[in-house]
Design brief:
The longest helix is centred in the C-terminal third of the chain and has 20 residues. It is globular, with a radius of gyration of 22 Å. It has seven helices and seven strands. Strands 1, 2, 3, 4, 5, 6 and 7 form a seven-stranded mixed β-sheet that branches. By secondary structure, it is α/β, with parallel strands linked by helices. Strand 5, helix 5 and strand 6 form a beta-alpha-beta unit.
């Protein structure tokens, strides 16, 4: 199992990256339970790719580092995406990365479990999860985890954040495990014989 964390934090250290790391730390062991080894986690820092993301829109193709990031996202069993809130929505860098990815590989996220998360200065921006992030990844044909995680400045160290992290991580792990263990459709000859309705009805009628 492989989890890719995409962080759009700009500062160092970054509360956006911190939230992403906590989500990944909770999801990695759950994704492979009851196996002892946790899922592999790869981190993509978008601030390191900003120049290549911009060049992609002018050159028409990604640079080497950005192409590697696209490959990692496409090959992941599950994604954790975290963005700071700018002007009541995701950051431009965050959106540009996924815009460039969708141009390069329109089906990169199709059917892929995605846990969405965001950070901001006030709890009033928590609706960004449902009003911006969920529609974006639904459009990209991803399977969005039911619980998103928003962390305002006052949430750090406060009661409640840990519970939301654990719940969202558990949902991501469950989706990853469910998709990886999906059973194939049964063989045609394994179905029960189909009996026409008229014959079933006739069998119920009294005789004599």
């Amino acid at each position: 199992m492989k989890i890719v964390l995409v962080s759009a934090g700009l500062s160092v250290p970054s509360s956006t990256r911190l939230l992403g790391d906590r989500l990944a730390a909770a999801a990695a062991p759950a994704a492979t339970a009851p196996e002892p080894a946790p899922a592999d986690v790869q981190v993509i820092e978008l601030r390191d790719l900003a120049v290549e993301i911009a060049h992609t829109f002018t050159n028409g193709f990604p640079g080497r580092a950005l192409a590697d990031a696209f490959d990692a996202v496409a090959g992941a069993d599950g994604l954790i995406v975290v963005t700071p809130v700018f002007s009541a929505s995701y950051s431009g860098l965050f959106k540009s990365f996924f815009d460039a990815l969708s141009v390069t590989d329109p089906d990169a996220l199709a059917g892929k479990p995605v846990l969405t998360a965001a950070t901001g200065g006030t709890a009033r921006h928590s609706l960004v999860l449902d009003h911006a992030l969920r529609p974006l990844f639904s459009y990209l044909k991803a399977v969005v985890v039911p619980t998103g995680v928003y962390a305002a400045s006052e949430d750090w160290g406060a009661e409640g954040l840990n519970g939301r992290i654990e719940r969202a991580a558990g949902e991501l792990a469950a989706l990853m495990a469910g998709l990886s263990t999906s059973r194939p459709l049964p063989r045609r000859d394994s179905f029960e014989e189909v009996v026409p309705f008229e014959e079933r009805l006739a069998a119920l009628r009294p005789t004599g």
